[in-house]
Amino acid sequence: MARKKRIWIPNAFYHVVCRGNRQDALFKDKGDFKIFLHMLHKVNEKTPFELASYCLMTNHFHLQLRSKDQSISKVMSLLNKRYADYYNTKNRITGHVFEKRYYDKIIDSKQGMLDVSRYIHLNPVEAKMTNKAEDYRWSSYRYYLYASGSPVVNTSFIMDYYSGSMWERRRKYRAFVEREGLSEWTSDMSDFF
Question: Which CATH architecture has domain 13-180?
Answer without folding.
Answer: 2-Layer Sandwich (3.30)
